[in-house]
Write a structure and sequence with these properties.
Blueprint: H1 3-12, H2 19-26, H3 33-42, H4 57-74, H5 76-84, H6 87-90, H7 93-99, H8 105-115, H9 123-135, H10 141-148, H11 154-167, H12 173-181, H13 187-203, E1 219-222, E2 230-235, E3 242-243, E4 248-254, E5 257-262, E6 267-272, E7 283-288
Antiparallel strand pairs: 1-7, 2-4, 3-6, 4-5, 6-7
Helix pairs in contact: 3-4, 4-5, 4-7, 7-9, 8-9, 9-11, 10-11, 11-13, 12-13
Length: 289
Amino acid sequence: MAGDEVLELLFAELGGPGFIERLESDFPKLDESACDRIVGVAAGKRVTPFGAAKAHPRDVHDDFGELLHHTVARWPDRFLTLVAADEHLRTSSSVLWVLGDVDHPMAGQLLVDAVEIRRAGYSFTRWAALKSLTEMSHPDLPDLLVALVKDRDSLVRSSATDTAIGFGDPRLLPILRQIATAERTPPGTRESALDAIEAIVVRYGLPDTDIGSRGRRLVEVRRPSDKARVVSLAQIYWGYEEVATGQELAVLKVNGRNQIVLAPCGGAAVISLLRVGGLAPEFMFWIRP
C-alpha cells in the first residue's frame, strides 16, 4: 500500500476504536513526506475523509494529537522547520503540546516565544507552551515564571504556580505569598502557592521560618546520590494523584545499575520532575502527606 493511502486510512480512522492499532502497525510505513501533510492538517489544511464515522470530535482531536506525537518523534527536524515557518503553527496548542517531547534547542525556543505572547486571545497558547516547557524542564523556566505567576489569565497563573513548585526561585516568594493569602485565590491554587513557597525555601537552603506559619508539610524525594550519574529510565507515576507508602514512582539507572524509586510515605504527589532519558534533578518528587 502506498504511503498516501496509508495516511488517508489513518486520517479516516481518527477517533475510531481501531485507530491506535492502525497507528502502531501502519505509521512505520510512512516516509518523511507524510510529515508535511500531517503538519498541514494542524495548520488548517483539512483532508477528506477526516475522522471515523460517528466519532466524537474530542476523540478525533485526541487521536490527532497522538499522531502528532508520533510525527515529531520520527521526523523532529522536518517538523520543527515546518512549525517555525508558519505563524499559525507557532501558536497552535496542539503543536505546542507535542514540542515538549523534542530534545532540540529549536523546540525550546519556539515554546519560549509562544509563552511570551502577551496579546489578547493567546492565553491558551501560553498555557500549552508552559506545560511543554515544564515537561522538558527548560532552563529558562525560573525567569519565565516571574511574569507567568502574574499572568492576566487564571489558567496560566494556576499552572505557573504549580510549575513554581519544581522550578521557582526566591524571586517568586513575595508574589506566591500574596497568592496564598488573597481571599479570592481558588483553594487548589492556594495549596500550590504554599507548596511552592516551601519547595523554594528547601531547595535554596533558606531558613524554615521563610515558609510561614504552616511550617514544613512536604516530603522531598531526592535523587540517590549527588556523585552518581542518575538517568531516568521510566516514570511509573506522573504526579498530582495519591500515592501509597512504598509505591513505585520511577526506574533510574544509577552508575549503570537499575534502581526503583519508592514513595517514602503516602499522600498527594504534587509534582514530578523527571524526564525519561534525561539526568535526574536533585529533587525528583514532592509528596504532601
